[in-house]
């Protein structure tokens, strides 16, 4: 077999597999039909039939946020429900430092850009990550205040991006000073500074 024949055979084997691989990497795109949204692949084949009232396109991690009859969800390209995001500004929570909040059984945890749950839903409320920490609370609740809600009551602490508690949940308020690696905490009106663990 000569060199040109071998190259031609290799080309015939590789080109279809490359194009198949490329098509699998292409994210699905949304389309609308009868006021509902679904998703098609790049050739126009319907992969997820129209069933959602609002959608965000699939991201590079092959997940998308969709609004269905049960509220907002994060789905994969097989239309599998991965999680229910925390709702912020009438939509799914924004990622902050690569993490977003999700809700499970009334508690809040954190997920990454692929909608993988990274920190278990163990908190009644959690602030978005800022400077590698999230202020969290248990025993707190949301109270409507005009157009917005405020968090009342409970005990506060802080976690890092691995979910480790770095300030125990025993304070009336917590604020982090990243530069000093300390937290300013209050209990019964008394303020003090503690080291972050």
Shape: elongated
Can you give the helix content as a percent range?
A: 10-25%
Percent of residues in beta strands? Answer: over 45%
User: How would you classify the helix and strand content by structural class?
Assistant: mainly beta
What summary fits the major beta sheet?
A: 7 strands, antiparallel
Average pLDDT across residues? Answer: 89
Radius of gyration: 23 Å
Q: Domains counted in the coordinates: how many?
A: 2
Taking strands numbered 1, 2, ... along the chain, how are they ordered across the largest sheet? Answer: 4-5-6-7-10-11-12
Low-confidence stretches: 5-24
- Encode the helix/strand succession as letters: HEEEEEEEEEEEEEEEEEEEEE
Tell me the span between the first and last alpha carbons. Answer: 69 Å
Query: In total, how many beta strands?
Result: 21
Query: So how many helices?
Result: 1
């Amino acid at each position: 077999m000569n060199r040109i024949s071998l190259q031609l055979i290799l080309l015939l084997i590789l080109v279809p597999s490359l194009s198949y691989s490329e098509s699998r990497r292409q994210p699905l795109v949304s389309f609308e039909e009868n006021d509902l949204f679904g998703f098609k692949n790049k050739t126009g084949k319907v992969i997820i039939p129209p069933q959602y009232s609002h959608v965000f396109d699939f991201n590079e991690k092959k997940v998308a946020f969709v609004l269905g009859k049960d509220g907002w969800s994060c789905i994969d390209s097989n239309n599998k429900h991965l999680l229910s995001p925390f709702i912020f500004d009438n939509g799914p929570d924004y990622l902050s430092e690569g993490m977003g909040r999700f809700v499970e059984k009334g508690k809040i945890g954190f997920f990454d850009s692929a909608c993988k749950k990274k920190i278990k839903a163990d908190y009644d409320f959690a602030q978005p990550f800022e400077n590698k920490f999230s202020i969290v609370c248990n025993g707190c609740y949301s109270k409507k205040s005009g157009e917005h809600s405020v968090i009342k009551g409970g005990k506060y602490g802080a976690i890092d991006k691995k979910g480790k508690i770095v300030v125990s949940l025993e304070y009336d308020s917590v604020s982090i000073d990243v530069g000093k690696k300390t937290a300013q905490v209050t209990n019964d009106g008394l303020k003090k500074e503690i080291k972050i663990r």
